[in-house]
Design brief:
Layout: E1 13-20, H1 25-28, E2 35-39, E3 42-49, H2 52-64, E4 69-75
Length: 78
């Protein structure tokens, strides 16, 4: 079961989004409060997503930056 603890929201769930390329810290703030970890030619953006609109906003931000979304998954932990 996904983590649903943030702000007591029933819709809050943790996600991992993986994009092609290693984003530097200049871009990490665009995804706050999500965590960004660079590894082997990709960036993993992970954390709690409060609702569907928040998730779609993250995906839209990825598209606006011209990044390729490689993977999107709901996870069971932060």
């Amino acid at each position: 079961m996904a983590d649903r603890t943030r702000s007591g929201s029933e819709d809050a769930t943790t996600y991992r989004l993986i994009v092609r390329g290693e984003l530097d810290q200049r871009f990490a703030y665009l995804f706050e409060p999500m965590r960004c970890e660079r590894t082997a030619g990709t960036t993993v953006i992970s954390g709690t997503v409060i609702d569907r609109a928040h998730l779609y906003g993250l995906i839209e931000r990825i598209e606006e930056l011209g990044l390729e979304l490689l993977s999107l998954e709901q996870t069971s932990g932060p």
